[in-house]
Structures are given as structure tokens and as C-alpha cells.
């Protein structure tokens, strides 16, 4: 059997869908369970905080599945800290081309992990 591979864009779409579903379910649960919330803004704020925690947890989970520490660091700087390849290259004393190669290697490794997508759908 061939492993199911998805592009970065497909994984991102699935991750956003999963986050939206989780946020929607959480918002409904909080409305039902939290009578202390006097207005919707309190509920929405709680949902936003919960969604951020879930996203952070997924990011850490995904990063832990990258075998190379250098690739993990590059992905973290590019996607979590939102730095450009050029900025990362300067910080790590690498060429921009080397950063791009490490990034592509790490993303390919993440694409090959079937359980990451399953985790995002929980």
C-alpha cells in the first residue's frame, strides 16, 4: 500500500477545517456549560484562547515529528516566528538556498507522516 501523501496546501486546508470544527464544538459546549458567561464576548474569548492552545499543541506535535533538529528549528522560525528564509539564513549563518532545502526536507517528512493528519482531525 502506498502512503497517502498530501501537499502542504491540502494539509493546511485540513488543519484549518479541523480547527474550525473544534472551535465550533467548543463554543457550543461553553455556551451550554458556562452559565457564568454574561455575554457572548466572554464565550468567544474563551474559545479563542482554547483554539490557540490547540493550535500550539498541534504545532509542537508536528515539530516533534521532524527528525533533524536543524530542520525543526528552521520550520519553527519560518512558520511559528514568521521569519523570512533570508532572515533565518542570516540568524543561522546559512545560505538562503540551504534554508530552503532544509525547509523542503522537513515539509516532505511531515507530509509522509499519516498520523499528523489524523491528529489534526480530533
TrEMBL record:
Name one matching Pfam family: Sigma70_r4
Q: Where is the signal peptide?
A: none
Residue intervals of the RNA polymerase sigma-70 region domain? 70-111
Biological process terms in GO annotation: DNA-templated transcription initiation
Query: Which GO molecular-function terms appear in the entry?
Result: DNA-binding transcription factor activity
Supply the SUPFAM superfamilies for this chain: Sigma3 and sigma4 domains of RNA polymerase sigma factors
Record's InterPro entries? RNA_pol_sigma70_r4, RNA_pol_sigma_r3/r4-like
- At the top level, the lineage of the source is Bacteria
The entry's protein name is RNA polymerase sigma-70 region 4 domain-containing protein
Question: Which species?
Answer: Paenibacillus bovis
Q: What is the lineage of its organism?
A: Bacteria, Bacillati, Bacillota, Bacilli, Bacillales
Amino acid at each position: 500500500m502506498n502512503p497517502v501523501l498530501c501537499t502542504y496546501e491540502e494539509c493546511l486546508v485540513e488543519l484549518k477545517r479541523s480547527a474550525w470544527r473544534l472551535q465550533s464544538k467548543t463554543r457550543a459546549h461553553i455556551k451550554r456549560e458556562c452559565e457564568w458567561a454574561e455575554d457572548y464576548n466572554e464565550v468567544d474569548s474563551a474559545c479563542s484562547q482554547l483554539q490557540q492552545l490547540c493550535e500550539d499543541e498541534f504545532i509542537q506535535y508536528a515539530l516533534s515529528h521532524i527528525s533533524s533538529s536543524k530542520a525543526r528549528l528552521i520550520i519553527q522560525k519560518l512558520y511559528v516566528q514568521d521569519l523570512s528564509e533570508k532572515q533565518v539564513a542570516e540568524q543561522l549563518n546559512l545560505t538562503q538556498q540551504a534554508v530552503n532545502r532544509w525547509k523542503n526536507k522537513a515539509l516532505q517528512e511531515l507530509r509522509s507522516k499519516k498520523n499528523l493528519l489524523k491528529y489534526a482531525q480530533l
